[in-house]
Amino acid sequence: MTDSNIIELFFERSEQAIVELSTKYGAVCKKVAGNILGNDLDAEECVNDAYLGVWNTIPPQKPDPLLTYFSRIVRNLSIARYHANSAIKRNSYYDAALDELEDCLASTEDIEAELSAKELTVLLDTFLDALDQTDRIMFVRRYWYADSICDISQMFQMSRNSVSVRLLRTREKLRNYLKKEGYEL
Fold first, then answer.
1. pLDDT digit string, tens, across residues 42-83
2. The pLDDT of residue 93
3. C-beta pairs of 105-114 under 8 Å, 24+ apart in sequence
4. pLDDT tens digits along 130-179
5. What is the model's pLDDT at position 114?
6. In this model, does residue 117 exceed pLDDT 50?
7. Which residues are CB-contacts of 59 (< 8 A; sequence separation ≥ 6)?
8. Do the two domains 3-85 and 92-180 of this chain adopt the same fold?
């Protein structure tokens, strides 16, 4: 079933829309939530909450592409759950991915003082567009989908060290690009 057909079902308020969304994108979004949370039960709960979120926002929203819209809701819910779960202890798996980016991006207060969130988004999009396909996919898999270095190395049939080095170099390129564009770290 196409995304537009699924969205039509949401506009008709048909419960079949949830079934079709789950069939088409449920596994992908559960993987995203699982990567962030490291707990299958919490991941499943976030995905289920995201179904409700999609149900409540379509209509009036008519997202294109639907996967990005759904996965963003799942990701935001998962990050909120992650912060709630790790208020006292650290989850080294997801924290490791965030710590790797820490040198490239300043704190939220600095971002607000330097650039609006939209300006930073444009800069990141421009940077990602300039990368070769492999580096771009690795970067997005690591820092958006929170895939492990091991998963990425298997995906690209590379050693873990090669993936780590490529990600390090990409972060350095990002840091240099942001400095060049006037974003002070």
1. 999 999 999 999 999 998 889 888 998 998 899 989 988 888
2. 58
3. 105/178, 105/185, 106/184, 106/185, 110/184, 114/182, 114/183, 114/184
4. 999 999 999 988 988 888 999 999 999 999 999 999 999 999 999 999 88
5. 44
6. yes
7. 10, 11
8. no
What residue type is assigned to position 95 of the chain?
D
Can you give the pTM of this predicted structure? 0.63
Place of tokens 């996967």: 67
Six-digit token string for 159:
């050693």
Give the start-to-end residue ranges of the domains of the chain. 3-85, 92-180
Q: Indicate if the alpha-carbon torsion angle 163, 117, 46, 87 is positive or negative.
A: positive
Going by CATH, does the domain composed of 3-85 fall within 3.30.450.40?
no
For residue 168, the tally of other CB atoms under 10 A from its CB is: 11
The one-character DSSP state at 80 is: H
| Mean per-residue pLDDT over the chain, rounded | 85
How far CA 72 is from CA of 92, 112, 169, 181, in Å, comes to 22, 22, 27, 27
As a CATH number, domain 92-180 is: 1.10.10.10
Q: Read off the amino acid at residue 117.
A: A
Note the pLDDT of residue 115: 43
Query: Torsion-angle region of residue 116: left (phi > 0), alpha (psi -120 to 50) or beta?
Result: beta
Residue with tokens 């979120």: 53
